[in-house]
Target: Dehydrogenase
Amino acid sequence: MDEIFRWGVDAVVITTATAAHAEYIGRAARSGLPVFCEKPIALDLPGTLHALAEVETAGTVLQMGFQRRFDAGYAGAREAVRGGRLGRLHTVRAMTCDQSPPPAEWLSLSGGLFRDTLIHDFDVLRWVTGREVADVYATGSDRGPAMFRQAGDVGTGAALLTLDDGTLATATATRLNGAGYDVRMELAGERDTVVVGLDDRTPLASTEPSGPPPADKPWTGFAERFGPAYEAELNAFVEVVRGERANPCDGREALQALRIAEACERSRRERRPVPLAEIPGAAET
Model:
């Protein structure tokens, strides 16, 4: 890392293991360099807040890698909500299903299902609806391979989220969806309903006699499903560095998604509803 900063680079892209994100963000900020960093900033709130403080003190750019904001389907959903096509939004259903779990050694480093996987759904929920989460109730199941129990994690999780305007949202995830990689969002309003992630590669099989056939080539992972979105977010970062556009996803957005994940993890462990007001959103003074 020291060698990189001696090269005279113009910007830094961080795609290392999560445990190194906050340190490298701070190094880049102190060097006056703009940073693109894959989510999350850190696996805990103190580390996240410290890194954000370094960026703010340095006055540098930090763009976070929540690639779903650059996916055509999610962008269409945002337009449908913001443009009034759905009318009053009453229900949102978000889901992320991995086809197979990560290596056992990764689980203890990942931060858990809510911080590592569902954090994407929490971020894009805010981005699409324009609302904040008011409170959560979450639970999870560690059935399946013993590695989930050994890591203190869950292989399947579910959260009920109440948004600040009363809209209800559910977010579910699993690491063991044998049919394929399945990421969707349904948004239902008083006028219309739209779905993100429903195409000829969605790993679904209908039981209706007249239903659509199962996908011939279902999605197998995030790199394949969101390839164009990953390219688009990096192109956006170049434009931000050049001063051609505003930052589309700064560190404060990542903090808000992490706060929701933290609330869900607390709710799961303590078996109770958790208001977002319980989760710190600023550095202690």
In short: DSSP finds eleven helices and ten strands in the chain. The first helix runs from residue 2 to 6.
